[in-house]
Specification:
Blueprint: E1 9-13, E2 17-22, H1 46-55, E3 61-67, E4 70-79, E5 87-88, E6 92-100, H2 109-120, E7 126-133, H3 142-147, E8 151-160, E9 168-177, E10 186-187, H4 189-192, E11 216-218
Parallel strand pairs: 6-7
Antiparallel strand pairs: 1-2, 2-3, 3-4, 4-6, 5-10, 7-9, 8-9, 8-11
């Protein structure tokens, strides 16, 4: 897939001014490549650094939304071959994450971040991501992803082998076509059971301290 590098800064207006900044290659926002919105950068982010070295040349983007001079939202995406999710598809863009801080809710910033991604990737056949249901984390909730326009393609019932071991939750493959008759993506369910190693804030994060290769068990 030939991904076009868009402008580093996209500025828009709503009821209050904000701007969306692509942090890749932007020195003043470099710290956001290795961190989420809350908290300091990880002291042990080698997996993240290794991931970015491979993903950025393939079209990885991470964008932050700045409102009243403060970063309050983010979106991260790439072509499927550069995503840390085992999701596959032709000319497919995978959204790794989207997040708006609670204090910035009510401005439609999530939809603006999504629109910015879609406007930047007009040649994509569609957009895919994951969603969670009954997970103890507040992120990636299925109802929130559905509100952005994604629909369910597949799902799996799993339990964590280390944390909250008795709690069953579901992982969904979510999809939003961008062209007519777009071919739906697929995912590697077995690989997803290994969790995510390149984002320490991810609900499915697999830290080095966990011995099993697979931290999730399908039910």
């Amino acid at each position: 897939m030939n991904v076009k590098r868009d402008n580093k800064v996209a500025e828009m207006k709503s009821d209050s001014e904000f701007r969306i900044v692509d942090v890749v290659g932007m020195r003043q926002y470099k710290t956001y490549l290795n961190k989420c919105l809350a908290g300091p950068p990880s002291k042990s982010c080698q997996k993240r650094i290794q991931y970015l070295k491979k993903a950025i040349p393939k079209g990885f983007h991470k964008k932050v939304l700045v409102h009243n001079k403060k970063v309050v939202g983010q979106i991260e995406y790439s072509p499927a071959e550069a995503s840390y999710y085992p999701i596959m598809g032709e000319d497919l863009v995978v959204m790794n994450c989207i997040w708006v801080l609670r204090r910035a809710k009510g401005h439609g910033f999530g939809r603006q971040l999504l629109k910015n991604m879609m406007d930047s990737e007009k040649d994509a056949s569609g957009f895919a991501t994951i969603a969670l249901e009954n997970h103890w984390s507040p992120w990636f909730r299925k109802e929130q992803v559905e509100k952005l326009g994604f629909e369910t393609l597949d799902s799996m019932r799993v339990a964590h082998l280390v944390k909250h071991r008795k709690e069953i939750f579901k992982i969904y493959l979510m999809w939003m076509p961008n062209i007519k008759n777009a071919r739906t993506p697929a995912w590697n369910r077995l690989q997803l059971l290994e969790g995510i190693s390149s984002c320490i804030a991810h609900p499915l994060y697999h830290p080095k301290s966990y011995e099993p290769k697979q931290i999730l068990e399908e039910h």
